[in-house]
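Need residues for this backbone.
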């Protein structure tokens, strides 16, 4: 059925109402809820000039549509919520407390006392307090208890139309999905495809080589005994002296070298400097 400005919608303990407006705004009204609409459409009747929802009690899901974000305003007995293009659930627990859970986008909640909090973090829960402020649950247990008691659409979305269902990741609930783990940004990139590799090889082959003066002789790596020795002796490096083998001496096994190395380390640890 159609709804008009000023209409009041209420449900019993088993009730569920789903509204879809011409500007694609969507509202789900849960059990034991009451809401009053105040919507003023523009001349083309495709967008709203004013879209005010008074949630007087119960649980709701709100999904903004194509109207300007400034046109939306959600009011409860203790709070006012400004919509910035978002999806969020509302729970009016009583005339003294209201709460919201952000599922997508950004929402600002202000209490009747003038305290405001804004968040765009998924699954964030904010509620008005008795002192007129806006706060968050003190721990995970209180957070889970609030979701179970006042946010039925996070617990289960089976009865909602597909346009009102949202992929909730990281929130508690029996049918919600687990948060996905994103790969770290410092992972090594995959090598280029074969075509790119072929292009790189071709470009390297076409690049002319410059005639450079003969480079000075560089030390050559140790070669097997079957290869002839180079004309010039390689320059000896201090780090390579330990790895060279002396002629006429038997080659030590790896076990003997490890025993000697262990004996040197133990010996050096056992020696203490005087004074």
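Answer:
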């Amino acid at each position: 059925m159609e709804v008009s400005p000023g209409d009041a919608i209420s449900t019993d303990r088993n009730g569920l109402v789903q509204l879809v407006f011409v500007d694609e705004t969507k509202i789900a009204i849960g059990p034991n809820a009451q809401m009053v609409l105040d919507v003023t459409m523009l001349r083309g009747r495709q967008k709203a000039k004013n879209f005010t929802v008074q949630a007087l009690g119960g649980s709701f899901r709100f999904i903004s549509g194509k109207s300007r974000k400034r046109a939306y305003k959600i009011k409860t007995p203790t709070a006012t919520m400004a919509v910035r293009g978002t999806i969020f659930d509302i729970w009016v627990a009583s005339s003294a407390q209201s709460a919201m859970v952000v599922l997508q986008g950004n929402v600002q909640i202000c209490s009747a006392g003038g305290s405001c909090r804004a968040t765009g973090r998924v699954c964030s829960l904010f509620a008005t307090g008795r002192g007129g402020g806006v706060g968050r649950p003190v721990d995970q247990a209180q957070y889970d208890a609030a979701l179970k008691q006042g946010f039925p659409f996070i617990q289960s979305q089976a009865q909602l139309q597909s346009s009102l269902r949202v992929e909730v990741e990281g929130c508690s609930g029996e049918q919600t999905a687990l948060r996905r783990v994103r790969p770290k940004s410092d992972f090594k990139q995959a090598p280029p495809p074969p075509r790119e590799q072929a292009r790189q090889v071709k470009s390297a082959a076409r690049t002319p080589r410059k005639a450079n003066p003969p480079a000075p002789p560089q030390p050559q790596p140790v070669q097997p005994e079957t290869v002839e020795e180079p004309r010039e002796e390689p320059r000896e490096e201090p780090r390579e002296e330990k790895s060279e083998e002396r002629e006429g001496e038997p080659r030590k096994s790896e076990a003997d070298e490890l025993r000697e190395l262990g004996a040197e380390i133990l010996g050096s640890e056992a020696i203490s400097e005087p004074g």
